[in-house]
Amino acid sequence: MEQLKATQCETAQDEPTEKAKKKAARASSTDPQARVMLGAKGAYGPGYNIQISTDAQAKIIVAMGVTQSSSDAGELEGAVERIETNLGQKPEQMVVDAAYPTHQAIEAMAEQEIDLIGPLREGKKIPWNDPLKRRGISPEFYPEAFCYDPSTDHYRCPAEKLLSFETEERKPGWVSRRYRARLADCRSCPFQAQCCPKTKKGRSLLRMEKTAPLTAFEAKMQTEQAQKIYKQRAGVAEFPNAWIKEKFGLRQFRLRGVVKVGLESLWACLTYNICQWVRLCWKPRRLAQA
Fold first, then answer.
1. Mode of pairing for the β-strands spanning 93-95 and 115-117
2. Measured between alpha carbons, how far is 237 from 217 in angstroms, rounded to an integer?
């Protein structure tokens, strides 16, 4: 429970929502290493997240991992490391589902020179004008009323005062640049009550810019070629999961704990690979001999 609470606190810091803060930590009394996850038909229960990486051409499983995360977000870098460990080289291309291409994963794949193919994630739309209303700023002085001059990297407010670059903060996928006006200009401005009534440093603006890897990824996924490659993902990635569930009947783990669940999953993946080996090697020989 202490480990779960610590993890929950980190998640709440990343996503500071009331729902995340009030969410109670829950653990299984029979398998403490399992985590509560969403299962079939919308039911919640203790489980593990099995990550399977499949070669697109031969349909062979090349890597497998077990995680305690209920989401696939953040699991892409671990999958690449497992593939490199097993094959001795990094994959040239990774085709992933919607949860994987986070901003951090996009930049990590670009840094490792791996071609990432996946759907564009829709960012959370935050009403940016709500904080401005709480600060007492009039709509006439919202950010769209300020003019940006790229040649001088300055903003100009409706009262013709300059806002100069102050600080820069880099986050995965984004670069946040803050511009601020001089305090003396704001104090002498007749529109201070409408523009910055509660500030003690002068009016400021944030300029959000996408990083180069994120911009390149979004542009690539708009192309017909990338969309065509992504359409092949389901037939490659979902087939091993369906085979293991239907042919082997592995819909519920018989063992408990991360290590034992990993062993059970590993045997299932090896069995699947043997079946595919028969398909790739033995059947063509029999046809040739016949």
1. parallel
2. 21
- pTM beyond 0.70: yes
pLDDT at 127: 56
Tell me: the pLDDT tens digits for 68-121? Answer: 888 888 899 999 999 999 999 999 999 999 999 999 999 999 999 999 999 987
pLDDT digits (tens, 9 = 90+) for 138-151: 989 999 999 999 99
